[in-house]
Amino acid sequence: MELPVHGSSNSSAPPNATGNGTAELSLCDILGPRRSPFFLPVTGVYLLIFLTGLSGNLLTCAVMAKHKKMRNPTNLYLLSLAVSDLLVLLFGMPLEVYDLWQNYPFPFGEGGCYFKTFLFETVCFASILNVTALSVERYIAVVHPLKTRYLSTNQHAKRVIGVLWAASMACAVPNTSLHGIFYLPERAEESAICTVLQPLWVYNVVMQVTTVCFFFVPMAVISMLYLVMGLHLGRGRRRPGARRGRTCGGDTRRRIRLETGRRRQVIKMLCESGRSSHAVLI
């Protein structure tokens, strides 16, 4: 959420504001309180999220690093998601907590403001694109299993993940370039705020384009892919496997039972993956 600095920057201190107490009061009137009134409860929630997310994502990375058998395309996408979560937890969340504790002045300068905005934009875009790519990989594995030999490989997944992160960084540049450090003319040192400096209509256009490209389009693609996968698995279940099982031998019946079990596992996986995908998008 951006501070309404464009509207408040037109305000000025009262002409008789000569004492420190009056000047401090005027600064609070313009920029709001230095510390958020919700600092303690929000910090407690952030701490819980930090401990839970850090432990879970570190375990994911540790398992992937220790067990080579776990390094398949699906788990590589999950590893990429874990890395994006760790970047937010280790770098983004401390900055958010600091902003709650002291809204101004922003102590990290112009570079810190760019880094904060660029980090949040990049990891958000990377998470959405990774979930979309994971859905495409599952779609190929279910609907076009013969293509998995050359499309669902570790090398192909690594290349796709690299392209996704590069695209996320490129798409984070426009919004990052709109931000900077805002100063009040007479109290520059104590009024520094990292916020949008460009006209708000430019920021609104960037946000609208971003919302379409990284929310509505991925949501539609993922929903369509899971719908097609569900229909494909449903047609497979309606095949007359029971009659074939009664007329064939024991090996054939065992294969049919194994195939049915695998299909049930795939359906369960698709439901869980689809639910997590929509959670990330939201």
UniProtKB/TrEMBL annotation:
It comes from the Eukaryota. The chain crosses the membrane at residues 44-64, 76-98, 118-140, 160-185, 205-229. Residues 56-282 form the G-protein coupled receptors family 1 profile domain. It is a multi-pass membrane protein. Receptor for the neuromedin-U and neuromedin-S neuropeptides. Belongs to the G-protein coupled receptor 1 family. This is Neuromedin-U receptor 1-like. The lineage of its organism: Eukaryota, Metazoa, Chordata, Craniata, Vertebrata. The gene is LOC114855335.
